[in-house]
Structures are given as C-alpha cells and as structure tokens.
C-alpha cells in the first residue's frame, strides 16, 4: 500500500526548516517503482542535481534544483542480471530482481561534471556514466554508448549500496552475500578483482550491510541491519541486529588494493633484508687489501637501489 508518492524533501540542517518538497510526477513513477537510494551532486548549490535509482522499474529519475523539475532516464545497464538473482544471507536463500541500486558520485571534473558509478543489486558488474549526459534527457537518450561497463566484482559478489569518497576517489560498496564491504580506487583504469580491496568482513556483525557514507571529516560510516533475516526468518531480540560502524577512510583502506598512502613498511623490510645480505657477504670476505672493498661496493649498490625504489 502506497500512502504517499515518492518525494524529495530538502531541509536546511542549520535551522531544521523545510526548504522544498518535490513530488515525483505520476508519469515518472511506475506501478513497480521503488526508490531506495539517491546521489546528490551539490558542488554548485544553485545547480544541484539529485539522481534517484528506481530498483523496481529500472530507471534514474534526475531532479534539478534550479529548474525544480525532473525527468526519467532508462538504459539496459540499469536492469538486473538474471544470472545474479540468487542470494544467500545467514542461511536464508532467496531470489531478488532488484535493478539499479548502488549510486556513487565522483568529485567534479574541470567542466563541473561528475562520474556516476552505479550497479543493479542483482548483478556482479559495475557501470559508469558522466552526469553531463544525465542532466539532459534528450542527450542521454541519444548517447547510448556514454554508459560504460567497468568490469566485474566476481562470483557471489552482488552489491547493494555504494558511495564515492571524493577526496581519495575510492568507491566503497557492500557485498551482501559475503557480509562484507569492499572498495575500488576510481583512479585505477581497470575494474578487476585483483584491484578491489576487502575492508571489512564479518558473518556476525556485518550481516546485510545496507548503507555507506563518508562524512565531511573523512570518516566512513556503514550500517548493517539483517533485513533478510527479518523478511525470511525471525529476528532474535536477544541479539544485536542493527549496527553502525565508523572508521577514518585512510584507516579503512590501509593495506588494501585501495590504499593511497606510501607503503613505507615494505621499503623498511627491503632495507633490512639488504643490510642482512651485506653482513653475510662481509662475514665471508677475507680481511685483506684485495677484498675489503667488495662489501662496501655491494652496500653502496644496494643503497642506490633502495633510493631508486623509494623515488
């Protein structure tokens, strides 16, 4: 039963005043529509855009603050993959055909357009499109190839929500079947499994990660809520069923494929290994005039190699 039509409700968080309520037009809301996630492009306040994914009737509804108007965009990449509709969470097996779900916006480019990274929930693939094409329905309809297939997360890696940290350029996303949250650095040209990092995985605490955000102080926030257990079983009220996780972004991605910090620990291990090799050589060399310079030469060579690797 639908009591209220889908709407955008915009508040001033400093005063708690309602600034605007925009009800989606009837022709943009279909019988099976369901709007679970929204991405907001707000680097220019007057030209703010909101992108709402319709997971029931695959589409993106684009809203312009400046025009106070919206339009509906469709594309084949928004559809669920029939081979990825099988889910298993905490012993509950079920089939979901959720379409476009995860939405993550990059920082704007020089022309003030962002890249929208998106994926259906029933899918293993990640896609992208420039908001240059989403801001105009005609342009989007006339440029099918503007929507790009980036690659696959691999088997059993269906994802619901996602979010891009605009400072590091890291895309965070849930892995609902694996009770995990993963990441990919958008500066990486290839969306391959080896380029994706697993930042947290737990079969008790991270059951069904359902929301991901990065705040203005560079902290990652994750919500898990055990929704499939509630739908197909029964929540145990003696257990913790809802959890909020938080960590600084740089700590969350540390020592993963998404790490952006210099790996000084690897360099230190190499230096220590080089020193040990040099000591072994020194110990074997006889202390006479013809051989005493060899360990020094070896040490200098290794030292130069370390400096080369460091740069």
UniProtKB/TrEMBL annotation:
SUPFAM superfamilies hit by this protein: NHL repeat
User: In terms of one coarse class, where is the protein primarily found?
Assistant: secreted
Among its keywords, does the record have Secreted? Answer: yes
Q: Which InterPro entries match?
A: 6-blade_b-propeller_TolB-like, MRJP/yellow-related
Q: Report one GO cellular component.
A: extracellular region
Q: Where in the cell is it found?
A: Secreted
Q: Which Pfam families match?
A: MRJP
Q: Which UniProt keywords apply?
A: Secreted, Signal
- Similarity comment: Belongs to the major royal jelly protein family.
PANTHER family xrefs: LD43175P, PROTEIN YELLOW-RELATED
Its name, as the record gives it, is Yellow-f
Give the originating organism.
Bombyx mandarina
Taxonomy of the source species:
Eukaryota, Metazoa, Ecdysozoa, Arthropoda, Hexapoda
């Amino acid at each position: 039963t639908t009591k209220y039509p889908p709407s955008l409700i915009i508040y001033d968080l400093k005063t708690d005043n309602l600034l605007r309520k925009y009800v989606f037009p009837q022709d943009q809301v279909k019988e099976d529509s369901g709007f679970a996630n929204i991405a907001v492009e707000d680097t220019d306040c007057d030209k703010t855009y909101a992108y709402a994914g319709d997971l029931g009737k695959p589409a993106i509804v684009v809203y312009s603050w400046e025009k106070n108007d919206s339009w509906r965009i469709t594309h084949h990449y928004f559809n669920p993959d029939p081979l990825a509709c099988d889910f298993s969470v905490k012993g509950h097996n079920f089939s979901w055909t959720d379409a476009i779900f995860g939405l993550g916006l990059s920082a704007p480019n020089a022309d003030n357009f962002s890249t929208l990274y998106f994926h259906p929930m029933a899918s293993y693939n990640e896609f992208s499109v420039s908001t240059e094409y989403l801001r105009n329905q005609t342009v989007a309809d006339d440029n099918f190839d503007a929507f790009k297939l980036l690659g696959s997360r691999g088997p059993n890696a269906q994802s619901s929500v996602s979010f891009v940290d605009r400072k590091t350029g890291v895309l965070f996303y849930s892995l609902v079947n694996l009770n995990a949250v993963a990441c990919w650095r958008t500066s990486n040209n290839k969306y391959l499994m080896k380029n994706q990092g697993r930042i947290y995985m737990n079969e008790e605490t991270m059951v069904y990660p359902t929301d991901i955000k990065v705040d203005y102080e560079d902290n990652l926030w994750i919500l898990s809520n055990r929704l499939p257990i509630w739908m197909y079983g029964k929540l145990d009220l003696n257990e913790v069923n809802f959890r909020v996780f938080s960590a600084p972004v740089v700590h969350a991605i540390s020592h993963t494929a998404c790490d952006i910090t210099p790996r000084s620990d690897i360099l230190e291990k190499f230096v220590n290994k080089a020193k040990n090799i040099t000591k072994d050589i020194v110990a074997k060399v006889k202390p006479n005039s013809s051989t005493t310079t060899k360990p020094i030469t070896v040490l200098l060579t290794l030292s130069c190699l370390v400096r080369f690797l460091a740069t």
